[in-house]
Specification:
Blueprint (H helix, E strand, L loop, with lengths): L2 E2 L8 H13 L1 H4 L7 H6 L2 E5 L4 E3 L8 E7 L2 E5 L2 E2 L6 E2 L4 E2 L1 H6 L6 E4 L3 E7 H7 L3 H24 L14
Antiparallel strand pairs: 1-2, 2-10, 3-9, 4-8, 4-10, 5-6, 5-7, 5-9
Amino acid sequence: SSTVSGSGLERTEDDRAYIKSVLRQDVLFQDVVREGSQTDLASSFDRVEYKKGDVIFSQGDTDKDFMLILKEGECSITIDGEEVSGNYGTMKPPAMVGELALLMDRERAATVMAKTNVVAFRLDRASFKYFIVKSEDIKADIRKIDHVIDKISGIKTRYGGDIIRQFKPNRR
């Protein structure tokens, strides 16, 4: 359960500048936002707050109605009930969360929970679709990346976990 900002929590110019800077740094958004519309896009985000322990997305959810840019706080990422290890297990500002499910029309790949109180900016699906112009190209690129990852995973699986097998002269 999130608290969506009402008139008391309006976005400030600083908020918009923050959103624009995050979008400019994100590979996904660099090429796809309509020319000259970054300011309008930044203005389309709503400020939202989550309390520690709130589940923001659940793995497998088909509700793909929004994405977030984190402003304050941390979120934990779990897949199949296990916290993801390393840097990907905790999302901190200025992380973007949920954009791939929105772009690819996929179910949520992970559960995202507020590890602390979180302040974020939320972009709804309709605004996302309006501002993204080359989403088909991006989908194709992401599918290629997925294919390569699958190939590497397949090789890794096939060769007992070694991507590069040790050379043995008589092996057929």
